[in-house]
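tool_log.txt
---
The assistant was asked to compare two proteins side by side. It first ran the structure predictor on the initial sequence, then on the second. Raw inputs and outputs are pasted verbatim so the downstream comparison step can read them without reformatting.
(1)
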Amino acid sequence: MSVAPIEEFLMGMNAQQVQQMDNEMEAPGSPINQAIHYVRSHPNEGWAWCANDGQVCTCDGWARYGTHEGQWPSFSAGQAVSGSFACNAATFQSSIGARNGLQCQCAPNSEKNAHWQNAALHFNSISYLQEAWISLTRVLGQGGLLPLNGDRTWNGEALFSARGGGSHDRSFMDIFLEEAKVYLPTTPSTCLEWAPTMYMPRFPACASGVQLNLEFTPDPNSMRAEGGNVYCDNVHLPHCIGQNRVDIALNTNVWEHEQDPHEAMVALYHAMKPGGVMLFTVPFVAPFHGVPYDFYCYTKSGVVHTLQKAGFCVPKSRMASGGDFIYGIAMMGGMAPGDFSEEEKWQAYRRGYDNIPDGALVVMAVAHKLASPHDVCPP
């Protein structure tokens, strides 16, 4: 059994490992073998860009003219072509009219050979590795091997740890919390964290001060404070803690579960002392995870709006994020932080509002309750 370039140079597999993978794919009736035959018999639509309107397209197979942009996608009927032709409305006797993105697309005959698409570059692919990844994604999905928890529909919470190597959001939050501790008091303080307590003991001001552990309790008749445990919801927090007020709030991935986020954030603001600091994190990209509820995901602008509307000062320079589009693919596939190198993790950690990417997994902020109305919020 020879070792192919992907197996040898990309994956570092030896001949024995390649043979085991081949056996898995070729075993008649096995899930992965059935998945391969499914993908082979269900080729994608096969159309790939070949020229813009007014250019020359070269294609041996079928071609069409039209656009995906503006109104509904509209294309002419496919017609057989061989060689080069002018990409314009006249060639295809098209009546689509002037629209953005007019182009010609080609579906090569070779792509339909025996109902199986060859490894040609489709659409805007620039690498055969991209095409291999797309085919492999389809096969693993049909074979029940992707996501890694084997469930492509439900059990979203399992994707956070399906790989057994921790969760991406917490790995980025650990970095943020360590960096953000410089904004916290150093003297003994009253601290609040939502159960289960994970971070309070790590901060000296909390470890030497008063630690309040908030256990979600939806029944108003059962809400109370007993020692360090507060049985309450966020909306009723000031009432539950009585005369106590909080110096430090460690609010990590809580507010996606809050049914009334604005009302609850105002209540939290009133539960904090003037000069209090909150370290706040929420997911932007995450699978559904009801514990017991899951209502929202937050963009970076959503974080600023939610906190500022309640009265908090939110310095944009003190915001951060973890993850990007690649980490989003990884999380939804069930990959773990350990599947990436330490350097790759730091590449996906960003500081400052303007540096937070469009596909961040988790958005993080330092929020202040200013000591005086005359204090100026840092930029």
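(2)
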Amino acid sequence: MKNYKTSKINKEELLEYYKVCGNAVKTGTKFGLSGPTVLKIVRLYGVTVNREHKKYADDYIISKYHECGTVEKTGKALDISEERINKILDKNNIDRIKIKHVQIGDKFNKLTVIEFLDYHVTSGGDKCKVFLCRCECGGTRKVKSSRLTSLNKPIKDCGCGWKLIQVNAELKRVKIEKKKKDLDEIRKQKRIQRELNKKNPKDKKYKVGYKHYRLTILSEIGNGEDKVFTVQCECGTIKEVRKLTIPTTKSCGCLQREKSYKNGLFTKNDKEKQLMYSRYKNMKKRCYNEKNHNYPNYGGRGITVCDRWMEPNGMGFVNFCEDMGHRPSSKHSIDRINNDGNYEPSNCKWSTNSEQMKNQRRSLK
């Protein structure tokens, strides 16, 4: 390789570029070498030489020929020689596409040739005939012969097709604009209606004697939005409520207190009642919640909780506490005397873990 001016060439970069493009001439142009020199370097380093015929299959070249219409255009499109294209066409018995010479009276799509006008000379010196054509819509247009016979995007009409597209697009735009205006008008009407509703809300006649949830209006002072009502709650508490807040006020505050922390059954700081309530809930889950993992050993065996401990509105828990009494210690939990009996005052007691182990059911082996 000393005879070639390749000492400063990055061989690895050259080989990688050649593998990508597969063309010795293009590789040589990039690295300042001739095509044969590139091929010698490629062969010296054991890289397979890409042949031009491997770049395109015959079927692809034939389809490209039908698309372009001539061997010359196909060669330029694929960057291969016309000789190779002709060989492939002959090998596959493909008839050559004859270039149609435009004559007066010929019809191409919607255009009919009616008159020869002149020659058009391209920048490369090629001459092309220009004809006057009449469209099916009645319009006329000057068209080059090559644009009439072209297989790739030929001229099909005088421009009426494009005008029709523009007209349809304009109609669509007007329709969308009208729909948008209609929607804006509907939104405007709704907005006006909301404003009217704010100024004239639905009359809930907040007058003396009117009952709102737990509150009964006793008297009122002031006018308009500054009006203040004196109300009495069902629990007996009397307080003052402003007109602006009475629609959202349901009680003197007792309702919230009743709802807070286990529906008012005990206070947040009563830890013993919390533990009692937890055991009470678990007892009911074991008997009635099929998703509970202990359900098969309790509710699944037909064990239930007595009606007194199942009373609604928290009374069941109150009765449970009264019947079971104070828990002796933190080590005690509720236990059934008869393992096959229900949860009821006569069958329940407080037991330690060891006592419960002695009283538990024995599985049959």
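---
observation on (2): The longest strand covers residues 111-121. The first helix runs from residue 11 to 21.
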